[in-house]
Design brief:
single chain; about 290 residues; alpha+beta; Jelly Rolls; Arc Repressor Mutant, subunit A; eight-stranded antiparallel beta sheet; two-stranded parallel sheet; 10 strands; about 45% helix
């Protein structure tokens, strides 16, 4: 019987890991895991995107501490860099993970651009997809390779590109566009820069300077890549991070307000009501029920 493995990938925090086996190596392209019931995994913002394939079993996924989804056998979902995730295993589950840093999409830029619709916006809602039969056969073979210890970078990269081809060939453009929404950009490198640096920069002007753009030029390029203004996007990211901190419950509301540099608790409360739909006290109180 294969050893069970701990899911420990950059940006993630493991919980409930007693007697679950060896820690995974970081930066592998493919990982095969058997996760026990009630296993929990947290994944913060700004780490590499990953596709999770549920081979057998089921998991519950909480996105940005707000949206809850269940994913079952022969389904897949994508973890993106600009969202946070909490995953709970509902029953013993076998998963195969493909780690896909933004750089990996550079070679696929041509077909990625073909997925971008001309006259309609791509929904930013979470989407899981069924794993089609041919794709499942491919994944089962990958499980064999990984479990046999085949971790050659060149080989695993070749299989990752084969996965890209299968996704494009077997899935509709509209559903694949929503599934891969995070990496759909005519300038993926620019998008990665934004995600990696927006928290440090703090505001649009500072982020533009860091990217060596004029503020107006940066805003124009940003709107082209993200389909919204940088200010609006940064406010959304700030709201996501605040929501995660409140729902985690490890800090007082005043501490969170200070951490996010609000000039007063009142301004913090107004921001939460506007962006999260309720004042922070109401969100916090719900955690007690």
């Amino acid at each position: 019987m294969k050893k069970q493995s701990i899911l420990s990938i950059d940006g993630g925090k493991c919980k409930n890991l007693e007697n679950t086996g060896e820690i995974l190596e970081k930066h592998r392209i493919w990982e095969s895991l058997i996760l026990p019931k009630d296993y929990r995994y947290e994944r913060k913002l700004s780490s590499d995107p990953m596709i999770f394939f549920i081979i057998k079993g089921s998991v519950s996924l909480l996105v940005n501490s707000l949206e809850k989804h269940e994913v079952f056998s022969s389904e897949m979902f994508m973890i993106q860099s600009d969202n946070s995730y909490e995953m709970t295993v509902l029953e013993q589950t076998q998963v195969l993970i493909c780690v896909i840093p933004i750089e990996a999409w550079y070679a696929e830029q041509k077909w990625i651009e073909e997925l971008i619709p001309e006259n309609e916006n791509i929904s930013n809602k979470f989407l899981k997809l069924p794993v089609k039969k041919v794709v499942l056969r491919f994944l089962l073979l990958m499980l064999t390779y990984v479990d046999e210890g085949i971790h050659s970078v060149s080989f695993c990269e070749l299989k990752r590109r084969e996965l890209f081809f299968l996704l494009v060939f077997y899935y509709k453009k509209s559903e694949l566009a929503q599934f891969l929404q995070y990496i759909l950009s005519k300038d993926i490198k620019f998008k990665k820069f934004v995600v990696a640096n927006f928290q440090t920069a703090g505001n649009v002007k500072a982020l533009a300077k860091l990217a060596n753009y004029s503020t107006s030029g940066f805003i124009k390029k940003f709107q082209k890549c993200f389909n919204e203004s940088p200010y609006k996007w940064m406010q959304k990211q700030k709201a996501k991070r605040i929501s995660v901190e409140i729902n985690r419950g490890g800090k007082s509301l005043q501490e969170i307000a200070n951490e996010f540099n609000f000039s007063s608790y009142q301004h913090f409360s107004v921001f939460c009501k506007k962006k999260l739909g309720a004042p922070p006290t109401s969100i916090f109180e719900k955690l007690s029920y």
